Amino acid sequence: MTGLHDVAKLSGVSKSTVSRVINNESGVKASTKEKVQKAIDACGYIANQVARDLQSQKTNLIGVIVPRMYSNATAKGLDGLSSIIDQAGKYVLLANSQQNHAQEIEYIKRFNQKRVEGILLYATHLDSALVDAIKQSKAPVVLIGQDGSLFNIPSVIYDDLSVGFSAGQRLFGAGASNIGFIGVNSQDIAVDQCRFEGLRQALQHTKQISPLFHSRGAFSIESGYQQTKQLLIDWPQLDGLFCATDRIAIGAMKAISESGKVPGKEIKVLGVGNDELSQVSTPSLSTFSYAFDLTGEKSANMLLDLIENKQSSVSKLVMSFEIIDRESCYLSENKTS
């Protein structure tokens, strides 16, 4: 097997010089580096990455924990963060918690065992057990989607309260006055609680009314469909519906259509996320768009700064959103007869 001494002999330098070139250390002439690299190529030498990691105390591994793989937010976020991590010469270890809170904590522990340099966590909740796991992690952790700044955890979050407030204004502006909300698990502070609270504040502010209901289910089209079927029976006066995600909203519109009512006309519907399906649904879905890829990039950069000790204090970055107007919730003045 080709070893360091073979490369040194062929290039005419010492083994220590070869080692410095392989580990990209400073103080080696460009001409010497070129000579060593040619010898490496000629010998077919492959460096022992494990040994190098142990020596340098670096693994160049970044752990990423996501709640589900089929999500539009997850896919675009991974694209964004992967590009930054790749540019930094590091590699992603990906784990899917399948929206299991215990698994998020378990993966934090496993990643520390794998000696990752940092962890990006797309969290679906934030409780004391998760906070403790993050605090005990030797590798720095950046939260995405949940605000951990109160616990001194660096976070990149979406402006969910403002999205909820804007949803209330849009639904009211489109002529709805009996408005309900379909959310997700109550432990998801951002997607469920913040979006609903924004809606509640908007309705109080504009018309001194409260939402008809706050229903909860899963992040799926089927969940939105099944919930809405029952909600239409329980709340026949419903004329405006804000859903925590686009997929929930698409399922809701299917149930509304099957009930004999027309989504977008008799019942205004709003989602969040600008999922690809929202453009091709019938009617097309009005929604809010987050720059998920940019969020991934910002989160990765924040983590890399923590790894390099460039960040001295805990930070929180709030990502803005864009309003996407489509057929399911046109404002009254934009409607055509």
From TrEMBL:
Keywords tagged on the record: DNA-binding, Transcription, Transcription regulation
Sample GO molecular function, one term: DNA-binding transcription factor activity
PROSITE patterns with a match to the protein in the record: HTH_LACI_1 (PS00356), HTH_LACI_2 (PS50932)
Pfam family, any one: LacI
InterPro entries, per the entry: HTH_LacI, LacI/GalR-like_sensor, Lambda_DNA-bd_dom_sf, Peripla_BP_I
Domain HTH lacI-type: 2-56
Protein name (record): Transcriptional regulator, LacI family
Lineage, highest ranks first: Bacteria, Pseudomonadati, Pseudomonadota, Gammaproteobacteria, Alteromonadales
Gene expressing this chain: scrR
